[in-house]
Amino acid sequence: MSNESKILSPQTGKCVSIIQIPDEVFSEKILGDGIAIIPETEEVLSPVDGEVVQVAETKHAFCIRASDGIELMIHIGVDTVKLKGQGFECFIKNGDKLQKGDLLAKADLKFIQENGFSLHTALLITNMPKLQKMTPLYGDVKAGENTVIEYILK
Predict the structure, then answer these.
(1) What would the pLDDT profile of 107-123 be if each residue is shown by its tens digit?
(2) pLDDT, tens digit, for every residue of 41-93?
(3) Which pTM value belongs to this model?
(4) What is the DSSP letter of 102?
């Protein structure tokens, strides 16, 4: 049996390298390493089984601790904190238990783009020292179905 774990795509769209996000905080991996999704649909699903650690007041970002201890951040769009919650609908709160595929939020992609923001969603592992290895998987993805990151814990 493999000790490799998987993180599913939180959104339907195209999975690309994190370095393609037009924001240095993400592209230079300051907060962690991971992937970017260019979303095509509004639903944002839980990529892992775990618990909600933090929900941004502006509903554009979430932190989740997976059941194996890996900590994830999902950040919808670039600089979307400036929208002050407009265009986002959130379905979770701190402390909620999650299963893979649970609905976290909806993002009005048209509204976000019309207001001049990039749609790139960052999916980051924020506690990278816990990993022995991380492998991103790029291409077209369906939320809650396709794996976007495989990893091995130390």
Answers:
(1) 999 999 999 999 999 99
(2) 999 999 999 999 999 999 999 999 999 999 999 999 999 999 999 999 999 99
(3) 0.96
(4) -
CA gap 12, 28 in Å, rounded: 24
Domain coverage including residue 91: 4-153
> What's the CATH number where 135 sits?
2.70.70.10
Active site residue 75: yes
Q: Write down the catalytic residue from 59, 60, 75, 120.
A: 75
The total number of structural domains in the chain stands at 1
Residues in the chain: 154
